Write a sequence for this structure.
């Protein structure tokens, strides 16, 4: 059986996921305050934050 490799965020040695970056990683605490410190992905990526998220 092939084992899934969990990517690790090298900056802090934590399992890398969108959720981790958006909600949990202390490195992004400042960026998170722009999104009004969301407590869930739904909140972070909600309508009220859509004007704050810029997709290049
Ligand atoms: Zn982290």
């Amino acid at each position: 059986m092939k084992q899934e490799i969990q990517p690790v965020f090298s900056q802090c040695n934590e399992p890398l996921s969108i959720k981790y970056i958006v909600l949990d990683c202390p490195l992004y605490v400042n960026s998170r305050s722009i999104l009004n410190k969301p407590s869930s992905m739904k909140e972070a990526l909600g309508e009220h934050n859509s004007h704050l998220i810029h997709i290049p």
Notes: The chain has three helices and two strands. The mean pLDDT is 87. The pocket of zinc ion is lined by residues 9, 11-12, 14, 25-27 (CB under 6 Å). The radius of gyration is 13 Å.
